[in-house]
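Two proteins, back to back. First:
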Amino acid sequence: MMAGEKSEGKYEGKYEYLYHIADAKYRAFGLTLKEAFENAALALFNVMIDTSNLKASEERGIEITSPDIKMLLVDWLSELLYLFEVDEIIFSEFMIDKIEKTGEDFFLKGKASGVPIDLLHHKFDTQVKAVTLHELEVEQDETGRFRVQVVVDT
């Protein structure tokens, strides 16, 4: 039984880390697809650093269009990783305003909040290089809850 799962097979909590021989693998959960994507972003940043004590002071808006829902998840997480590297912000709060199908594509609008990297105060555990397509999942269970699974290259 993994952390965040109840013995009867239902889950509680935002995310859980799974065993992967070389990279970091996790599942994130949500009552809505938006919440599952938000929790996937939170898990991504907690692979790198403990975000629980960060007080967000900067915000970035994000709008993404992707050909399918799985690629939307990859593109969302990849954009956050890009902003982390370029703008040097550790994101710890995520809010997705909308995920919708627009014609053939999927559209996401949201924002991420965090703090500027300060190497004197922030200790990184792992470097995440990229979000992969390996074992990627976006699923809705019989109760209507969502689960996403992600493997990131470390």
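And the second protein:
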Amino acid sequence: MSETTSLAEIREFASRLSPWAHLATVGADNEPDVVPVHPCWEGDICWIMTGTGSVKANNIADNSKVALHWQVTEVGDGVELWGTGQIFDDAETKRRLWTGVFDYDLNDFAPGGPDDSPGTGFLAVTPTRALLLKHYGVNGAHRWSA
């Protein structure tokens, strides 16, 4: 059975799953790329720290469509999310996100902090639709769309 849900429920459910998700992007060659990421939410935007010259950043420059799949729990609960991505590397965004949004220390990956970390940026995923599955969908599928 499929039911509708809110983006707030999707965010809350995803936050209880693994901190890891897999991000899918499509490059200029029209080939998919999938990479593990550690996404965090700020309101309705899902943020991912990334290198501005990374494959994912380059792919998003060519095609802004993205998908995320949170690692499924041992009981089969999971979240899939589709949306559009945009890379931000401006100082204001970096300073805002550097503390209080992510649940890990960004300085471990960019020791220069928000003001001295060239090549470091953030991917903002604006969700367009999502699917919350309980026990691989056997115990319910909940859909959200913008």
